[in-house]
Structures
1.
Amino acid sequence: MDAGNDNQPQNPDALWKYWFDLKTAARAKQWDVLRHQLAYAPDKPLAAHPFVTETFHAAANAGQDDILETLFERGFSLDAETLGETIKRVAIHYTADAAGIVRAIRAHKPEASVDDAVCTAAAKGRLDALQALDAAGADVRAGDSGFFVALYSAQPAVMHFLHEKGAQLYHPAMIAAQYGRRGELPAEKSAIAIDVYHELLAADNEAAGVLYAASGSAPKNVDELRENVAGEGAQMFTRLQLAVRAGRWDDVLRAAKADTKQNLQADDFLMPDGGGQRAFDVLAAQGKLSSLFDAALWYRAPQEVEKIYAATADFRAAAVCDFPALVAGMHRAQIDDLTPAADSFRLTRRRKP
């Protein structure tokens, strides 16, 4: 091939033939020939002509990352969307060589997104593809999208991997998988997906369990539930927040119901803790949200539970509480609270006149 001997690199016909020769070598998978052609005519531009684009895609599919580097260095470019599609294709279909290809693309075109590749791999349970993307230095979380797709596709191995990479477990869309969005999970796998999600939540809160245990015996009243406990760094938690994270919700219920002087407030559940989460979010993620709407907890402060009920919209979870029934239950509890105990009445025998 004499493309490299052309002394007029800007001549359209000569360029066309040069690009055609590149494409021909790429189609034949003659990678050494292609490298020679590129090295022999280093001054010839490589525009996004269909022939050069085909060369690029063939080299990407074959794992020839050094050729991609040369193409980019010589001026070749594609739009970010096309490069994102290329990343997805090599990650899913040419996984063994994907890391080098993705690294080469993103080194020259950092705007090329990996999100579509991550979501496709997560949906298919392709842990190997995600590991290849991770090896290339890509953000395999894709924001929160990767874990979201893995959860809703019921892919346990991918969920574990993305959790290790720092996936956000408390995103409203993740929590909603147990409530208003549960029907979006595969019916035959929904229980597995939710079980894995709960396992990850428990693992995420092991440190909170240690802190809670070290904070003393179980709280006996609302004041003790509100005591502050220092966490890592400048993090601060109430004992209620730690109890919820540690899965000790029963301790909260016992202390709150035993206290006849103080009531829980909405802020006890809606105020972020030292880790940035609300106790309400953690309870919802654990699948325990319905137990929060207990008439015995709120009948002395019904306006507070209204605020908490409004927050169920965050997770499409309003159905966990029959609010009219809760209101009726609180009214009954208020009446019971005002009614003297039966043993305070004394019946006396009527005397005959």
2.
Amino acid sequence: REYAKDRVAFGKPIAHHQGLAFLIVEMNAALEGARILTQEAASRADQGRAFEVAAAQAFVEAAEQAAYIGPNALQILGGPGFMADLPVEKYMRECRALGLLYGGIDRAREDIGQTYLDCDLPIQLTEYEA
């Protein structure tokens, strides 16, 4: 957010360009949604309530939003976003790995579906898991 206020393109800060401002707002909303789901799962665990489905939902949302936010953050930063001294470069590498944790997003979706539907669901391996 601060970078978008400071970086100037076409005579004004890039945060003042409507398209980029909308993108930053959407990225923030995506991040907050994942954060809320994660906090809900943690709260359930702290209270001794069933949290497995909430945790799986938080994982799926966080992995999907990381895959959305990361490339867009690089786009906003431009070339400097690829430099190792900025955290975005590290986040991009980590968000790719996040989607593969615990059997991947599809496995988490299968677990959620089995709980909701109370039946076994066959899982299709993605190209990354095969």
3.
Amino acid sequence: MKKLWDLFDKASDKCYKEIMQGKLDDKVWKETYELLLEIIEKEASKHQKGSWEFYMLDDETDYEHDVEGWLEDYLDNLEEEEKHAEILQICEKILEMFDWKEVSSSDFKIRIVFSLIAQKKGEEALAFSKKWYDEDKDDQNAVQAYIRSKIEMKDMDGAKEILNKYIDENTECCEENELIFQVALLVFKLEKNKTMQRLIEKKDS
């Protein structure tokens, strides 16, 4: 495994060096990602079925390789390039490869919903986000994903119905609901409800 990790470190360093030089070679990042998949599969074989968690990649290597940070940067780069199909494929693969019993998969799921919406796949986004929301109504990413999917499907009444379960004119914006406030602002902008729009902007400032 040490050889594979060394290869990953060299490859990820090359990715960041290219960024420092103002370049973004998709091939370099993709090859590094393929190498990471190989590592994940080999590391998974060391664990009992049902106990392989995403955080373990970094935790069991003393955070020497910063896998989570690199993968987040890769997805961010793809988002900047509007390569939504690739984002969808990667996030679905990562969800599939781990068990997600100890840590949340929310960061990957929200990218899936947004990539589907960006590809005008509203029905798929709605189905995915509804299932996610039904499983975890306390996850504000799940809430905003479901609302955004409703908006994409032109169901503003449905979007508002969900939104009203979480905030009203007396709700204060805090860390636990700031993402819901952001999607609330979108809802009221689309509705041209300037009164609520100003109120949300004031609370979110």
4.
Amino acid sequence: MMRYLLIGIMAGLLILPAWAFADGDSISAFKAESLYRAVALDWKVRTPFTQEVVFQILRSDSFPEGPYEEVATVPYDKRKRKYKYLDKSIGAESNYYYKLIVKGTDETHGPVQARPFFSPPAT
């Protein structure tokens, strides 16, 4: 159910969705999915950005604490709410940890963990 806030402006009313005043992070549901020789990262934009931002994806192949290296950047598109990035640049069947940084803000999400598999799926 969509909630709305009513704000009186001069002699009229302005109706805005409640998310326009949401506190906290603009990103929700950042997750990693283990795939065959790859990891899929998904996230949703909960609150639209008013400034120019870029999503920076960092990966650690050792520990959740890092060290992390950039594997990709994904541009923000005001028309999109859902994003997906497929990381195929992995080299071994081990745990990988990812962080999502919203460049242009102070938001950091993660780490999330995935362990891709290197044996082909059963048919």
